[in-house]
Amino acid sequence: MSKKYDLVIVGGGPGGYVAALHAAKNGQKVALIEADHLGGTCLNRGCIPSKTLLRHTEIIESIQEAKEWGIETGELRLSLDKMRKRKDDVINKLRSGIAFLMKQDKVDVFNGLGIIESSNAVKVVGQDSEELLEAGKIIIATGSTPVVPPIPGLDSVSFETSDSIFDIKEIPESIAIIGGGVIGVEFATIFASLNSRVTIIEMADRLAPLEDVEASKLLEKTLKKKGIKILTSTKVERFEKAGEKVATVCTDKKGKEVVVESSTLIVSVGRKPNLSATSKLNLEMAGPFIKVNNKMETSIPNVYAVGDVVGGFQLAHVASAEGIVAANNASGELDKIDYHVVPRCIYTLPEIASVGLSEADAKAKGLNVRTEKFDHAGNGKSLAAGDTTGFTKIVYDEKLGEIIGVTMVGQHVTEMISEASAFMYLEGTVEEAAKMIHPHPSVVESFYEAAQNIVHKLKKEKKLVR
Ligand code: FAD
Asked: Which protein residue's CA is at the shortest distance from atom 38 of ligand 1?
């Protein structure tokens, strides 16, 4: 007899496992099916391993900088084995944490490939067994996988993606990274600190093209200072073998051929939905992704989808937020997703963090906005830390002073963005941000200073009468 559940979730990443815990706390009997490891891409080959390695980068850069400050160590020696082991230890600790939470909330975890047979049945295909689960409701949380573009020659050379690069055994002498988006620039930062010669090849005219233009420019300038070669407006035409190396043949913006030879090639040009569970369902799609409404319902009643498989932001915290909405709706509580305030972080050194609309996006939407930028060179904590690269920029509504968006570049900004997000979530104004007492010295005073500058300007223009 098949086992019966109120809710069966396919995929144990941040979308699926958070949904499972939430639904269980709502009193549902829940099964979670995971084909690989709990924690999904984020924990096993995404957010967590990259941030663990970026912490090594931070330490390496600090040691190098400390020399200038009269703090000397011996020769810097790097062990990739030990760094990889620390990364694996962090992953294992978090994996067992999730398994513990599943047990605590009585979620049944099945290890195997989940195949959705119908809107109320899911088959689990294990290594040597198959089992059919009866499902009142289903959540699809199968995530995404790296896109491997059909560029000539790619199938005849060896290359890495974000799925494989974390487990390489030797520090590469040189790396070409195809794609200067969030994932590409984080890898560039990691490997440059390990003394690999890094080249980023990006088709758009700037790195991190979805972020504020000034943030992109500052990132590019700082990465260049670290010795990273950056080729923007450059299109990869083909790959060729060059002895032990790979030759990436490109065309630059003037139509000139550029060849980049590297011992390692990383392809990071985006992610595509993992549809391994859904081939038997006739789901309505939105481009390559599963189409959902704001309750995370798919076109098939009682079947929900969340996370990377539905596209959109493709961020772990968004997958989890969508998971909670789907879990609530599947438990009979009406809930809707709200994408109004979604912080986005890039963990390069300097970090970039943003929330809400950039100046360009706000103007494109016809909003009457102005911006104020505070440079971290004028921030005491940044000076004391010896790291003044960065700024805080507020986009605000000219009439009401409401904060529409914030972009921050610099140290600690991925932590600081939550304050700006809270202001936006509560529809806070620049006047309120300027009034709230901030700790001194702190880098986040830059947000406070920018808000104060806006208030002074608006008062001077008699737009703000107090
Ligand atoms: P996933 O995490 O991909 O999980 C899906 C799970 O479903 C997987 O474990 C998979 O094995 C399982 N699965 C798939 N098909 C089946 C099936 N048929 N049966 C059973 N199981 C199945 N996001 C951030 O917010 N911050 C970051 O710093 C960040 N850094 C990143 C760095 C890298 C290098 C990468 C690649 C991604 C990063 N991301 C980051 C993105 C983040 O990892 C994803 O947005 C997030 O993991 C999506 O969660 P998900 O639950 O939708 O899918």
From this structure: 46
Do residues 409 and 352 lie in contact, with contact meaning Cβ atoms separated by under 8 Å?
Answer: yes
d(CA 26, CA 330): 10
Q: Are 309 and 140 in contact (CB under 8 A)?
A: yes
State the distance from the centre of ligand 1 to the C-alpha of 41, rounded, in angstroms. Answer: 3
Is residue 214 left, alpha or beta, with left meaning phi > 0 and alpha meaning psi from -120 to 50?
alpha
Q: For 27-78, write each residue's pLDDT tens digit.
A: 999 999 999 999 999 999 999 999 999 999 999 999 999 999 999 989 999 9
Q: Is the pLDDT of residue 466 over 90?
A: no
CB 175 within 8 A of CB 262: yes
pLDDT, mean of residues 355-372: 93
What is the 3-class SS of 377-400, one letter each residue? HHCHHHHHHCCCCCEEEEEEECCC
Q: pLDDT band at 464, cuts 50/70/90? A: low
Across the beta sheet with 235-242, the strand order is 235-242, 245-251, 257-262
Query: What was the pLDDT predicted at 48?
Result: 98
Q: Residues of 37-50 as b/e, b for ≥16 C-beta within 10 angstroms?
A: bbbbbbbbbbbbbb
Taken in order of first residue, the domains within the chain and their CATH numbers are: 3-145+272-330 (3.50.50.60), 154-269 (3.50.50.60), 350-460 (3.30.390.30)
Q: Which two tokens stand for residue 378?
A: 């004028």
CB contact set of 305 (below 8 Å; sequence gap of 6+) = 139, 140, 141, 283, 290, 292, 296, 298, 326
Q: Ligand 1: which residue has its CA nearest to atom 47? A: 42
Burial annotation 265-296 (CB, 10 A radius, 16+ → b, else e): bbbbbebebbbbbbeebebeeeeebbebeeeb
Give 3-state DSSP helix, strand, coil % of the chain, rounded to 5.
35, 25, 40
At residue 164's C-alpha, the angle toward residues 262 and 260, to 5°, is: 15
Q: Whose CA is nearest to atom 53 of ligand 1?
A: 143
Ligand 1 within 6 A of 184 CB? no
Place of tokens 């088709």: 203
Task: Give the span between the Cα atoms of 55 and 83, in whole angstroms.
Answer: 10
Express each pLDDT in 229-256 by its tens digit: 999 999 999 999 999 999 999 999 999 9
Is pTM beyond 0.85 here? Answer: yes
Residue with structure tokens 């529409």?
404
